[in-house]
């Protein structure tokens, strides 16, 4: 579970996506959080509570971003 996040952060979710990766990019925040799969670019929208519960940690993308 993560305590804070910002737009364009990369997060690792608890369960992997159907394509096999569990790394996502946050592309919208608010009452709902929109995330994009880093492998297949699928976009999913979760309510903030579900996102906070299912997000494991924030990660750094290659190159220090």
Kindly list the characteristics that best describe this protein.
65 residues, mainly beta, five-stranded antiparallel β-sheet, 11% helix, globular
What features would you describe in this structure?
Helix content is 11%, strand content 40%. The chain has one helix and five strands. It has one helix at 48-54; strands at residues 10-13, 23-28, 32-37, 43-47, 55-59.
Reconstruct the topology from this structure.
Blueprint: E1 10-13, E2 23-28, E3 32-37, E4 43-47, H1 48-54, E5 55-59
Antiparallel strand pairs: 1-2, 1-5, 2-3, 3-4
Strand content: 35-45%
Q: How many alpha or pi helices?
A: 1
Mean pLDDT, to the nearest integer, reads: 91
Low-confidence stretches: none
Based on DSSP secondary structure assignment, what is the total number of beta strands?
Answer: 5
Helix/strand order:
EEEEHE
Order of strands, widest sheet: 4-3-2-1-5
Q: State the secondary-structure class.
A: mainly beta
Q: Using only CA atoms, what is the Rg?
A: 11 Å
Percent of residues in helical segments?
Answer: 10-25%
Largest sheet: 5 strands, antiparallel
Shape, per Cα inertia axes: globular
How many angstroms separate the termini? 21 Å
Summarize the structure in short.
The protein is built from 1 helix and 5 strands. It has 65 residues and is mostly beta strands. A 5-stranded antiparallel sheet has the order 4-3-2-1-5.
């Amino acid at each position: 579970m993560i305590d804070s996040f910002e737009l364009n952060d990369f997060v690792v979710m608890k369960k992997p996506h159907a394509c096999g990766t569990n790394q996502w990019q946050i592309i919208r925040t608010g009452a709902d959080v929109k995330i994009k799969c880093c492998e297949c670019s699928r976009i999913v929208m979760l309510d903030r509570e579900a996102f906070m519960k299912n997000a494991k940690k924030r990660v750094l993308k290659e190159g220090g971003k």
